[in-house]
Amino acid sequence: MCLPLIKIIQYSLLGFLVLLVVACDKITLPRLGFDTEDEPPLPLTITYAFDQNLLNYTHTVDACGLPYTIPVGQIIAKTFFDVGQDRFDGVRAEPPIGQAQGAPPNGYRIVLNLHHFGFDPVTKTGEEDRYIARVDLQMQAIYEDEQGIALAKSPLTYHQKVSLWTPELSGQSISCSTGPIDGTVEDAAEALAQDMIGVIPQLAQPTQFPVAQQPLPAQPALPKPTSPIPYTPSPSFQTTAEPSIQFRTKLVDANRNLILEGGEVVVLLIETRNVSSGKIPSAYVELRGNPILVEAFKRVAPIPVPIGALQPGEKRTTEIRGRMPQVREKTNGELIIGIILSEGFPPGTHTILLEIQPRPSQKRPTR
Question: What is the pLDDT of residues 125-154, one digit of tens each?
């Protein structure tokens, strides 16, 4: 007796859905990602001032076995402008994007700088067209009033793993689909644009958001080692908030002569300390600079290297081993070490300058 009743209910619901579809022009599905359609625009006019280095920045990656140059700066500028048009009453830009100058009376001037962009494949090998990549975008926003006074600074940080598919567009492998690559950069820029907008309501609350000119408290100095390797405490990140991490670094080569030779084993030591009052769920070591030096470590371990969670006051030493590739001529190398945090304000970077040269030839003794 129950089975016919259940069938009647099912058919009734199906008929109701059919009538609903016929009665409507279309069915609107909820947006995935950022949804600001229901939020009223903020009653402000914003003037964007994009740093010239940001606008000109590009990054070359391996797409489907072919080099592709990502127009990172152009994507960031366009995305910030598009998001701003949805969230503010008015959006302007200073040259070369627009002709505006300074902050309007009813808004702010926002200066945007690019600190770092990274796009590193995690699972890609050879000419695979489907892989996982790690996207890292670090920017800074400076908020100014109409008198040109900097009210605040805030770091904007994005770090995500993304799944990409870059299929070849022809059998001759002369081109491939790079839209997903640009799309990941656009997603990162959109996330940071939303983070920036979240700071705007706090600008009128100086007790909760420190004034940019307020000096930072003195940082406790870390002890200096006796080693001649460049080894310095972490400089303060240029923001009104105190960095959550302090770190120091040391690079050691096999024969300890501070000259990196082809095929030589190198060890990078990073000592990190959580100087904040809260737990940091995860942190990573990132490496940039001379491709020869970065490749030396990537040959042994995936970059960035996880540090793990850090409790307040906890100190930890991470060891990253690498092997220098063979080089043909003598050159100078620059290795830039940074720390990526899941929460908290990141520190600055360390730069180690070293000499790179080919491996000395082994000559047989003459008789």
Answer: 656 677 888 888 989 899 998 888 888 888
Per-residue CA distances from 219 to 91, 191, 203, 269, 336 (Å): 39, 31, 26, 22, 22
Q: Which of 161, 195, 162 is nearest to 83 (CA)?
A: 195
In angstroms, the CA 239 to CA 244 distance is 12
For the chain, residues with pLDDT lower than 70 are 1-38, 124-128, 168-175, 204-242, 361-367
0.85 exceeded by pTM: no
CATH superfamily assigned to domain 42-202: Lipoprotein like domain (3.30.160.150)
Q: Report, at the CATH architecture level, how domain 245-357 is classified.
A: Sandwich (2.60)
Determine how many CB atoms are found less than 10 A away from the CB of residue 295: 15
Distance CA 367, CA 147 (A): 82
The Cα–Cα gap between 74 and 55 comes to 6
Structural domain spans, the chain: 42-202, 245-357
Other CB atoms within a 10 A radius of the CB of residue 73 amount to 21
